[in-house]
UniProtKB/TrEMBL annotation:
This is Organic cation transporter protein-like. It is found in: Membrane. Its main location: membrane. Residues 1-238 form the Major facilitator superfamily (MFS) profile domain. Signal peptide: none annotated. It comes from Lingula anatina.
Length: 264
């Protein structure tokens, strides 16, 4: 029932379908479109040769590879920490069932919190701050003396809240960084990388046979590291979305976005 993305249709050269959707939206909003303006808008969506992009295009240049591998690491670590905390509740002491229920409830404030900070401090800072705080909370949670079990659970809940927040943001970051012509490919690619982190999480928990606090220390340090590297990603808050690969290359090369605006 949903209409296709107009920007994607333009990127694929399917102007008739894009024009039909724009015309329908204008009619619903009781807006009269100037035919010349509409034709000019459609023409600007046909600036680049139509090609089919694959995950290989995400790594074709050094700059693309840097961004792609960085985002892939953030996805991987987010899933690793999220599922590591979910599966590791038995290491917190006390009631396993209560801890598991609290871990689920901890996600709710994290999801609401992101609504208030997302457009205020920027995407990169959210990833850095929340992954760093969540990672440190995981490390300190298992170093608390046994007679302060309530504090251990509290810190673990803080870690789960923080990582659930960044897990929500990373979808948006990935979609905003990559251009329209490869956006769906990049999101699928990085989501798959994230699932590898989920697969590894139960194996990381086995490190408790070596040293009981080790699993939480490992996932905590991974979270802090990935959060720091996220600061190297381009900020997308308030920036126009790239439409073509050439505009994307301009953005990640650190040059002006004039070309992006023209090609978009």
């Amino acid at each position: 029932v949903l209409p296709e993305s107009v920007r994607w249709l333009l990127a694929q050269g399917r102007h008739d379908e894009a024009k039909a959707i724009i015309t329908r939206v204008a009619a619903v909003n009781k807006v009269t479109l100037d035919p010349d303006v509409l034709d000019d808008f459609l023409l600007k969506g046909d600036q680049e040769k139509r090609v089919t992009h694959t995950p290989v295009d995400l790594l074709k240049t050094l700059d693309r590879a840097k961004v792609t591998l960085n985002i892939a690491l953030v996805w991987f670590v987010n899933a690793l920490v999220y599922y590591g905390l979910s599966f590791g509740t038995q290491a917190l002491g006390g009631s396993f069932y209560l801890n598991f229920a609290l871990m689920g409830l901890a996600e709710i404030p994290g999801q609401f919190l992101v609504l208030f900070v997302l457009d205020r401090i920027g995407r990169r800072k959210i990833l850095f701050i929340f992954m760093a705080i969540g990672g440190l909370a995981c490390v300190f949670a298992v170093l608390i003396p046994n007679d302060m079990q309530w504090l251990t659970v509290t810190l673990a809940l803080l870690g789960k809240m923080e990582i659930s927040t960044t897990f929500a943001v990373i979808y948006m970051v990935t979609s905003e960084i990559y251009p329209t012509v490869i956006r769906h490919v990049s999101l699928s690619f990085h989501s798959s990388i994230g699932r590898l982190g989920g697969l590894l999480a139960p194996q990381i928990l086995l490190l408790e046979t070596v040293y009981k606090p080790l699993p939480f220390i490992v996932i905590g340090l991974c979270s802090v590291t990935a959060g720091g590297l996220a600061m190297l990603l381009p900020e997308t808050l308030g920036k126009p979305l790239s439409q073509t690969m050439s505009a994307f290359d301009t953005v990640i090369n650190g040059r002006t976005t004039t070309v992006q605006n023209q090609e978009g």
